[in-house]
Amino acid sequence: MKENTIKNNTIRSYVKREGRLTSSQQYAIDNYWDRHGVDFSPACLVLQALYKRRAPLILDIGVGTGDSTFNHAQTHPENNYLAIEVHRPGVGQLLNNIESNNLTNIKISNNDVIDVLQNQIPDRAISQVFIFFADPWPKTKHQKRRLINDQLIELIKRKIARHGRLHIATDWQDYAKHIQRLCHSDPELINLSGNKLYSSPRPNWRIRTRYEARGLRLNHNVWDFCYGFNLNR
Ligand SMILES: C[S@@+](CC[C@H](N)C(=O)[O-])C[C@H]1O[C@@H](n2cnc3c(N)ncnc32)[C@H](O)[C@@H]1O
Hints:
This protein has one domain: Rossmann fold. It is about 35% helix and about 20% strand. The protein contains 8 helices and 8 strands. Helix 1 packs across helix 4. The longest helix is centred in the first third of the chain and has 14 residues. The protein is globular and about 50 Å long. The protein binds S-adenosylmethionine.
């Protein structure tokens, strides 16, 4: 696994406190990374060579243990998936799932999505972006760490294909309001729930992961947002 060694002063949306890997996660990283992992490199990926075919690319950002990516990829073999996760235990778990089910349409990056988008993804290459249950950073002093911010949206706008889609889900009302403020005022984003509506109906293809289940246990609502793009550049 090659991490990005270009250090910059960007505020990160995560803190690496990953604890110990289980022996099965370590085994997966040692044995399956070469087949399904994407090392960091400051050069654009050649997607057709990576997946050995041309297919719509779905970028799933912050996949945790990857259950949602895995489910979507298994039910949509016609798509290619790039799962991005900075914590290695989740990467190990997803590698095990990919390998035991012989999936060939998921690749995994173990780097910060900002570095991956800035360096490795060609412009206009992504068909859909998923950001499900990003860490909410609820304390005011930590909100600068939120993953969904101007920088990420600008990068997505550069990398998304013309008829691409951005799907977001959160169970934190304050994060939902933040997303609404950021995205609904952006003339290049189209709120596909309709201009007057706050959020979209829950898509039936999004499985309930443990993060959503925890939100529901805490009596949180869940907000889904779905955007198209109006890019004249
Ligand atoms: C709360 S979990 C959600 C997992 C999954 N999407 C789900 O719905 O179950 C958020 C994940 O995003 C990852 N993450 C946070 N910032 C990231 C970044 N900049 N690049 C890649 N992964 C990131 C965290 O490590 C964490 O595993």
